[in-house]
Amino acid sequence: MPSRPGKRLQTFSNPAPERDYRIRMEVPEFTCVCPITGQPDFATLLLDYVPDRLCVELKSLKLYVWSYRDVGAFHEAVTNRILDDLVRATRPRYMRLEARFNVRGGIHTSVVAEHRKKGWRG
Known about the structure:
The protein has helices spanning 58-66, 75-90, and strands at 11-13, 23-33, 40-50, 54-56, 94-104, 107-116. The strands form two sheets. The protein has a four-stranded antiparallel β-sheet, covered by helices on one side. A hairpin with a 6-residue loop joins β2 (23-33) and β3. It is an alpha+beta fold and 122 residues long.
């Protein structure tokens, strides 16, 4: 059965909630479109987080990322939106998302957004 893009991020229980540990993911095939020109933008997403009670399920993350393929979004806006959605779904102790966009017009753009749970010092 073919998969379809979707905005629903699924989670599973953290197998070691008593410990701070980092989960790192690299998503090298992120695409969206420029909201002004409609041309495609390509990026590698680097996700780094310390889970609390929940972890993000990988297939749902893949389908979530795919859902942006035809969405017009500025680099800064889409990076922050993705971080907000991941934080809402997982409620991590810490999360950092870096979006490294491919060169466009001779300019390379990286956007970094972070979240820290109140009181967490890591």
